[in-house]
Amino acid sequence: MMNLELYLTTNCQMDCSFCGAWYRSGAAPQISLETACEILDAAAESGYRFLALSGGEPFLHRDLA
């Protein structure tokens, strides 16, 4: 089984030294939920079964709640 790590946003209230979200030059601050759903649908069809939400802090995405 494959695992998908989906980066929803680069926004974060922390400043963790180990986090790569701070160094993603050119990355959009967040992806749309429509795009996220398209990625999830394609991943499910391709055999992905596990999902990790990541980025910066996923719950800072304006539309996630």
Largest sheet report: 2 strands, parallel
Largest sheet, spatial ordering of strands = 1-2
What ranges have pLDDT less than 50 throughout 5 or more consecutive residues?
none
Radius of gyration: 12 Å
Average pLDDT, to the nearest integer? 85
Helix-strand category: alpha+beta
Distance between the termini: 28 Å
Strand content: 15-25%
Helicity level: 10-25%
Number of helices, counting only DSSP H or I runs of 4 residues or more: 1
- The total count of strands amounts to 2
Shape: globular
SSE order, one letter for each helix or strand: EHE
Features:
65 residues; alpha+beta; two-stranded parallel ribbon; 1 helix; 25% strand; globular
Task: Give a verbal description of the structure.
The protein is an alpha+beta fold and 65 residues long. The protein contains one helix and two strands; from the N terminus they run βαβ. Helices cover 20% and strands 25% of the residues. Strand 1 (2-9), helix 1 and strand 2 form a beta-alpha-beta unit.
Summarize the structure.
The protein is α+β, with helices and mostly antiparallel strands. It has one helix spanning 33-45; strands at residues 2-9, 48-55.
Set down the secondary structure blueprint.
Layout: E1 2-9, H1 33-45, E2 48-55
Parallel strand pairs: 1-2
